[in-house]
């Protein structure tokens, strides 16, 4: 399905995850964050860039792996993305929902 995000048409799946990462840019990420009642800080962007890099390297993502990444610990991840942290962070990052997320 198509959805207008940050003023441009973006293809998303039924859960709102982008289906084509090439459509993502920081304005799209900020708009998705705003939909999730988040205002992105530099720490949010550190996590988002880490997740995008891991996706690019085809690394399976989990909260535990992110927490041990050295980028952010689990407590901070939950404080940055309070509701479903990995789901929310990956959605903002424009990457697919991790298989570890129900």
TrEMBL record:
<dbReference type="InterPro" id="IPR043163">
    <property type="entry name" value="DsrC-like_N"/>
</dbReference>
<keyword id="KW-0808">Transferase</keyword>
<dbReference type="GO" id="GO:0002143">
    <property type="term" value="P:tRNA wobble position uridine thiolation"/>
</dbReference>
<dbReference type="InterPro" id="IPR007453">
    <property type="entry name" value="DsrC/TusE"/>
</dbReference>
<dbReference type="InterPro" id="IPR042072">
    <property type="entry name" value="DsrC-like_C"/>
</dbReference>
<dbReference type="GO" id="GO:0005737">
    <property type="term" value="C:cytoplasm"/>
</dbReference>
<keyword id="KW-0963">Cytoplasm</keyword>
<comment type="similarity">
    <text>Belongs to the DsrC/TusE family.</text>
</comment>
<dbReference type="GO" id="GO:0097163">
    <property type="term" value="F:sulfur carrier activity"/>
</dbReference>
<dbReference type="Pfam" id="PF04358">
    <property type="entry name" value="DsrC"/>
</dbReference>
<dbReference type="GO" id="GO:0016740">
    <property type="term" value="F:transferase activity"/>
</dbReference>
<protein>
    <submittedName>
        <fullName>tRNA 2-thiouridine synthesizing protein E</fullName>
        <ecNumber>2.8.1.-</ecNumber>
    </submittedName>
</protein>
<dbReference type="InterPro" id="IPR025526">
    <property type="entry name" value="DsrC-like_dom_sf"/>
</dbReference>
<feature type="active site" description="Cysteine persulfide intermediate">
    <location>
        <position position="101"/>
    </location>
</feature>
């Amino acid at each position: 399905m198509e959805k207008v995000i940050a003023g441009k048409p973006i293809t998303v799946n039924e859960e709102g995850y982008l289906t084509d990462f090439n459509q993502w840019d920081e304005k799209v990420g900020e708009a998705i964050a705003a939909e999730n009642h988040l205002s992105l800080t530099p720490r949010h962007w550190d996590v988002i860039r880490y997740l995008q890099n891991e996706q690019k390297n085809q690394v399976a993502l989990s909260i535990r792996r992110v927490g041990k990444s050295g980028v952010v610990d689990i407590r901070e991840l939950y404080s940055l993305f309070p509701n479903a942290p990995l789901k929310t962070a990956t959605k903002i990052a424009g990457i697919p929902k991790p298989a570890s997320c129900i």
